[in-house]
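In the current project phase, the collection of sequences with tokenised folds has grown. One resulting record follows, to show the layout:
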Amino acid sequence: MSNQSQHTTRRSNDAPSIRIVSEVTERIAQSVGQVIIGKRNEVRLAILGLLCKGHILIEDIPGVGKTMMARALAKVVGCSFSRIQFTPDMLPSDITGVSIYNQRTNEFEFRPGPIMAQVVLADEINRATPKTQSALLEAMEEKQVTVEGVTYKMDNPFIILATQNPIEYEGTFPLPEAQLDRFMIRIQMGYPAPAEEITILSAQQFQHPIANLQQVISLEELLRAQAAINHVYVADEIKQYIVNLVTATRAHSDVYLGSSPRGSLALFRTTQARAAMAGRDYVVPDDVKALADVTLAHRIIVGPSARIKDISARTIVQDVLAVTPVPGASAR
């Protein structure tokens, strides 16, 4: 059987499993949309990160719904949940946990920290010192924590939803590059439109809508949807397009440090999820273009001279998209 026939057969066999992705997406989006008004694209990006088993960084000014987005997303999914409120005096052990000596058993017992949950809300993550922030590195990459030489595995799935204020605000510390690179996507909320803000006022007149939010999918459904994404077909031309984009960020004249190979993997995986959310079992170039900014921009360090000119990483991604040739769409 030819490779083309194998791809065609595989897609028809996997088509029923792909449907669960769009079904789960719509249920979560409809429920979270009751709390996060007028941010349909941002909500769907957060769902996309969840389906990809990727960590999500929600960045914007205070008061635009960052924490509420993370709380709502965690509440509608059937996973264990914990929240960490980051502060300047927090220690790494406050996150990972500690071993305490038990006098009755004459042994040390591990008391797990709040990181030991399936969905973790790291609220205002950049208000903690870099030393404390680095306590998340092993957990985010290897899905485990090591305390006093003993390694503890995380449950599946393990996802961190982090919020942060722009680094120009007082009392914030920039996230280390190694940690930024571990976030699959970065979402920026933005202000609501005036009409949407009026809706927000009306919705919260008596109580916050999140109080009535209910779980809408089970853990089994989430795991099935996450597994189905792996079967979305990505043509070799699309893979080459992804690599060309990432390579171009490294060669850009305004860039000090371009996107890492982890950025290529993030863009690859998120395009699979976007296709499945749309009911497709194959990726098209528009999927790549739609997700390049949220997967690559936070991995790019702009050069000093470009920063003086107010050139941002997002601008560089747009430049790269404009000059990189787009392949013809292929479903086979």
